Amino acid sequence: MSLAIKRQISELTALPESTSIVPQIPTHRLYKRIRRNACKSSGALTSILGYVNLLEDASSNEALQILLKITDSMHFDESEFPVAIRKLVEHFQREPESAVRVKILSLFADLAIETGIDGQQLIDEVIKLLKVEKSAKVISQGLIVLEKIGKSFTPSVAYINQMVFFAKVKLFSPSHNVQRHAILLLGVFVLISDAEKESLELIGKYTDSPDARVRAQAFRSMLTLGDRGVQLPASLYPRACASLTDDYECVRREALNMVFELGVRHPEEMIKVQDSEQEVRLIDDAFGKVCSAICDLSMNIRTLAAELLGGMTMVSDEFLHQTLDKKLMSNMRKKRSLHERSAAHFASGEWSSGKKWADDAPKEVISADSVSLMASGACGALVQGLEDEFLEVRTASVNSMCKLALKNPLFAVTSLDFLVDMFNDEIEEVRLRAIYSLTAISRHIILREDQLETMLSSLEDYSVEVREGLHLMLGACKVSTKACLTLVVSKVLDVLLKYPEDRLSTFGCMQRVGQKHPEICMSVTPHLLTDHPFFDNAERDVEDPAYVCVLIMLFNAAQHLPAMLSLFPETIIKHYAYLRDTMPNFVPRLAVSGDTKELNLVGSTGSRQFLETLLSNIQRAYSAPQARQALLKAAQDDLDRLAEIDPAFSGTANFTSVFFGAQLQMEQLQLATTGQSIKAPIKECLLQLIKKCLMLQNLFSNLTTDDQLLVKQMCLRASALNLVLIVKDRSQSALGPCQLLLHIASDTSSFLQENTLLVADTFTSAILTKLASVGDPKPGRVYREILPIVQTAAPVVIPQINTNIKMCKARIIEPTETSYSAENVIKVTAGLIAAVPFVAELENLQQSQRQDLRLKVKYPDQNVHIIVPRKRDLKKVMTEQGESESQWRLRTKVLLSHGVWTEASTVEITICLSVKPNNELELCKPVKVHFAPKPVKRGL
């Protein structure tokens, strides 16, 4: 291991400093000391040859243990691999125990995946060993190993043909397990041109194998070939249909996938109906076969069939509508004309004898019950899926019904009643799926009064997600009559009294209802406002949520129908001004005072021009340090304000502001490295700089490669400053900062090697070159090498404008500052727990950051508790178009507990990202709640 490291360093030091090659900082150097100490403490060998040499005199059990130790280590000098592989092959040839031989082959696969060993050499060795092998278990493992080795790198065509030829030879093995893995290897590696000629037919023959696992693998390999680009012919369809009635679930599953795939690939292919001369489209027949699988005995097959139905959108309308009717339609039976029946009777040679009345009447040669263009299982298939006892089948059926309805408006109208019935399902997940599906197809339907009654009855559901989903659905759908709209408004307001926490969701619902029904809203305006034509009514409370809901709906309707403004009393106009200022996201701008002008910042013009001017002014002042720092401080305030008033440029402005803040901190710390005094404490400045670097790394997405390079260079400068100042201070160990600097340098070096078009600045190039030349990277030596570079570093390059940058941030909806104010204190017995409902919305949270989400609770005594929310509490926000890509909602409960307090005090709750141990980045300002743990009341 040490030899490999020294070789890399010597190669780096041989390069002149002016070369354009990016110096490489080996990442394993960071953990060299840790590994060495671990090896000494455990007594483990550090060479793979040390392990392999022990195999010569070991028994089978001992050899197995040695091989397990090799698998656990996986950190060896690559120069020893050729000798080690040769000795492992020799031991394989003389080993009598098949389990040990299996383990040796498995070790070859692990080495190919986790190390830089030559994969082609391993393929040659494995095939040579398997040619003389007799054990079916070992041969099966060898085929698995060949697949893993082949996937670990890109083998040449010669090696691919070598593996394919070996797999074809093993297809004739009497072992079913060997056949299965040989077919698997063929599906993964056979060349596409070869597969279309003969390999596909060869694999297809094994769908008639006596072993169910081989049959299933044959279908699976053909599907794999189809995914790789091989044209699957329609001639495979009868073979797949015959396997739908197989006794084994695994075969039926793969055959069902094959039927679906062929139906989608060849939708217009005409095939004959069984026991008939009639022809139907392949997609229609495949649709019927998949529908029949919904009646399968296996829950997994039924779920798969229900899922596949949603992808068969090219099916004919008559077949599609039949899935919602359990009685077969009469026009799906085979009918023949009188001329055809007479011709068939004449061809039979039978003539009337005259002895029996009407014995020469035309007769049906084919019974109407025996010939059907649609399998009986397709009748009411989706209804059968919706009524299934397993929630997985019901959920899949609802999803498929939604996908089919989106492509077929007539089917959407027909399926409406069935989706509404699913609102009464016992499982919350199924109810939510039905609600979201109905929301998705809302543009194709208009709700009737009887349907609304069933929907609105679900508004009192105990689940807040169901209620919010219904609010979203009601806002997306259109109603048919004035009575329907009145019913919706009255029910929504009644439920709001029962669940006041649904206030924001209800406001959004009434906003969308008003936007979609301006004419109907105009007709019910006097009724909703209780406006008398002759007498003035008392002014209503503008803080009443029910009254606010009505006003939001009417104001949004008046935006599309300005004539409604004449129906509003004078008090309503005053309330509009108040609500417009307090809730601008719910109340639109109306021409109530004659002024319709509104300031709009357009991201492509005003904001961008401001940013370009700001950056150009800073660029011109780069030669004057004092002027540059003054401009950077002023630019931070301007960028923060721009992020507030222009959401389109919010991410770009925040990114530039944080970048400028880090640059200011860095320039101050750079003065401290030269011995000059600075205003702020050095330790505090370092913490702020590290925090800003972590923000640049973790809170912003959609960065270009240039932006990523700037962030990495900024982090490299910060880590170099951190090491220099800590060594100068001499109050703490510099080993951790030194390893951090090496790690960041290695990451930056790898990034530059991957993106060869990028050019690093002079500071980064000098630091990487110096670190690559350090043989033993101890903190003192690294400090001496980088100190002159850090002291004379030029200012950082200004980032370019990237309008696609998004910043991860959060907004706490509940609790609010007023919900738990000094008049509404959370009281609990000291030592016990109070559960505070917590709801927050997050924007631009990456999928990989979900597990890093934390809740931070800070008590008045400065104790901080970090809470990990449950994964199921974080879900994507649903919109009328489906799940939002960038918005998440966290709905959980924060547990508060403390000792006795003399009086109520505020507890701060916020949401943050845990990017490093003891490093949390807050995504929003904390909300303060009043908390009062009371002493235990003693009984008499």
TrEMBL record:
It is found in: Nucleus. Transmembrane segments: none annotated. SUPFAM superfamilies: ARM repeat. GO terms for cellular component: integrator complex. Residues 608-802 form the INTS4 8 helical bundle domain. One of its GO terms (biological process) is snRNA processing. Keywords: Nucleus. Residues 812-936 form the Integrator complex subunit 4/Protein SIEL C-terminal Ig-like domain. The keyword GTP-binding does not apply. This is Integrator complex subunit 4.
